[in-house]
Amino acid sequence: MAEMSTLCTFLFSLLLFASHPLILPTAADGRWQLLQKSIGISSMHMQLLKNDRVVMYDRTDFGPSTLPLASGKCHNDPTNTAVQVDCTAHSVEYDVLSNKFRALTVQSNVWCSSGGVMPDGKLVQTGGFSEGELRVRVFSPCESCDWHETPNGLAAKRWYATNHVLPDGRQIVVGGREQFNYEFVPKNIAADTFKLHFLSETNERGVENNLYPFVFLNVDGNLFIFANNRAILLDYVNNKVVKTYPKIPGGEPRSYPSTGSAVLLPLKNLTAATIQAEVLVCGGAPKGSFVQALQGKFVKALNTCARISITDPKPKWVLETMPLARVMGDMVLLPNGKVLVINGARSGSAGWDLGRDPVLNPVLYMPDNEIESRFKILNPTKIPRMYHSTAVLLRDGRVLVGGSNPHAYYNFTGVLYPTELSLEAFYPGYLDAKFNNLRPTIVAPKSMSGIRYNKKLKIKVVITGEVTLNLLSVTMVSPAFNTHSFSMNQRLLVLGNDKVMASGKSTYEIEVMTPGSGNLAPAGFYLLFVVHQDIPSQGIWVHLK
């Protein structure tokens, strides 16, 4: 009887924690705003485009969404187990400036796909599920544009793959379920797949733990690829591994479904002979968590980050302890070079209904601080963002947050974490009105200006308060394709400030050098910010070409 009583108490405790997400009262700054109670779909994938609109989508076999398509537009799939003829939207375009959205039409299943923005500003999205596995879809940023699909645009089926934009303008597509290879889009140069044994070596039978690999373009033009608990440096042109990195200490998995997140930390000193590149991997789930979650036991998530200088001759991982354990979190590079860790759960794993204990507090990571003082807990949301949540940086410095659907279909009642159709904005502390007199306003160049590699660039700003010249800096951020806790193509470059001159009342001119090559910054549209005392301006779009 005593054992039964203890078991009942334990089960009750599990239920209590599952229904009461973790909120910490010690949070210091940041605030939240509900933008839309419902956009009709659950934002499982998200990408900001150059017209300040965000394209989002979920999947076509969820069942009907709450957003109807225009008359006559329907998705017809006889193999769809939810509904064979679906006349509702599963993709939307959200207009940041007007806080409005419109329905978009996808013709095949985009579930768990990947993508990125090409140098011309078009979103190219690859793969998906079922009839969508071989598809390439293109979305152009215009007032009335919609998805265009190429049925056999891929050489291999891609589901849970990762894309990265390359210096030559193509995208590389790496991995996916049962795909231990990579390929390129568009297929105007190489039409085949290329074997990557590293992906089969990191695959755990029956669990995988290496899907949606973390891929970053290194400053030498090679690709850093992380899967499971370790990484390689790949010369993708010659299909050759040029460096093998050690395992993260402890050997715990960080890739889907033991989903952590990762960022390439801000690139600095871009005119130096040697440029350091560092990767930060945070959170995840201990080995075995996925299988245990399937059996109803939800293991506490990892509370560590691992940081490595990928350009060092003898690189080593350095472990850091987060204030909050987190699985399925997202990591967003902020304009001032800090990292926002947001969304996710405190226990369990990625997968249908396998996460518990939402982590409602974001955490700020400050990479330049001493190792013991790099984390800061921020104010919480009220909305759990579990499996299939998303987050992207906006031009005004806010972070757009959406999604969360841990169920196989839309499910709004009788579950711990209902399907979430809402959109929120998180306002980092630098957007507080008390900093308005320190906040730069860019007056030149105009948004959408073209810039060239390795050229002097002059930026004119207005700052009404007292200016500290050596704390003025210019940054460039590449908008990311976000899904499944990873932001593909996310990149921040610190251009610094080579020269600052006062040019009138409260007006200053900052001179910087643009990136030296496509290895540092592939051609395309970037958000350019001026940062003063850690307070960023509103960004402007620049076209690097």
UniProtKB/TrEMBL annotation:
<dbReference type="InterPro" id="IPR014756">
    <property type="entry name" value="Ig_E-set"/>
</dbReference>
<feature type="domain" description="Galactose oxidase-like Early set">
    <location>
        <begin position="439"/>
        <end position="543"/>
    </location>
</feature>
<protein>
    <recommendedName>
        <fullName>Aldehyde oxidase GLOX1-like</fullName>
    </recommendedName>
</protein>
<dbReference type="InterPro" id="IPR009880">
    <property type="entry name" value="Glyoxal_oxidase_N"/>
</dbReference>
<dbReference type="Pfam" id="PF07250">
    <property type="entry name" value="Glyoxal_oxid_N"/>
</dbReference>
<keyword id="KW-0732">Signal</keyword>
<dbReference type="InterPro" id="IPR037293">
    <property type="entry name" value="Gal_Oxidase_central_sf"/>
</dbReference>
<feature type="domain" description="Glyoxal oxidase N-terminal">
    <location>
        <begin position="44"/>
        <end position="430"/>
    </location>
</feature>
<dbReference type="InterPro" id="IPR015202">
    <property type="entry name" value="GO-like_E_set"/>
</dbReference>
<dbReference type="InterPro" id="IPR011043">
    <property type="entry name" value="Gal_Oxase/kelch_b-propeller"/>
</dbReference>
<dbReference type="Pfam" id="PF09118">
    <property type="entry name" value="GO-like_E_set"/>
</dbReference>
<feature type="signal peptide">
    <location>
        <begin position="1"/>
        <end position="30"/>
    </location>
</feature>
<dbReference type="InterPro" id="IPR013783">
    <property type="entry name" value="Ig-like_fold"/>
</dbReference>
